[in-house]
Amino acid sequence: MRIVIPLLDRFTALDAVGPYEVLKFLPGAEVVFAATKSGPVRDVPKSLAITADATFADIDSCDVLLVPGGPGTRGLLQDDKLLNWIRRMHRSSIWTTSVCTGSLLLGAAGLLTGLSATTHWAAIDVLESFGATYTAERVVFQGKIVTAAGVSSGIDMALALAAHITDQTTAEAIQLAIEYDPQPPFDTGSPAKASQAVKDLLARGIR
């Protein structure tokens, strides 16, 4: 099973690494990180780098396409070369998935029209501009398309996908292997739960 994760300009590292840590356990899994050119790709300048094993041109098909999001996503919504590649991967895929604002690229490629989908809470308007209906769930299955909400929900999506690809026991074993047992110290993981002070700090920029 070939799982392809494109590394895009200014991607969010956990969007890619979280699902990777789950899906690499699938029997027969081959995970390929792809980019416009092979070599290290950084999430932001002078920060974490992940190595792209192949270029987009090297990949002619995949079983699972997993599109991460990140701050650079909006700048790629009119990148015809990338969008055409996503469309091509989708035609042959068994599953086409996204994490966070990666769903915006699926939308821009015309894959979400008339479907329910999720994304990062700050990108709902853009998602719906592509004809999708936003739903406030962490993971949304629509046929072979699976979207996950913001960043950390990519792990939830990958575990749910693992259960569909194999079975629930296998997915649960993977969850145990990575000791995914969330017990966050704060209950501010969504806009509905965060205080105004937290929202104001985020709006100003945490750093």
From TrEMBL:
Keywords: Lyase. The lineage of its organism: Bacteria, Bacillati, Actinomycetota, Actinomycetes, Streptosporangiales. InterPro entries: Class_I_gatase-like (IPR029062), DJ-1/PfpI (IPR002818), INH-QAR (IPR052158). Residues 1-162 form the DJ-1/PfpI domain. Its EC number is 4.2.1.-. This is DJ-1/PfpI family protein. It holds the Pfam family DJ-1_PfpI. One of its GO terms (molecular function) is lyase activity.
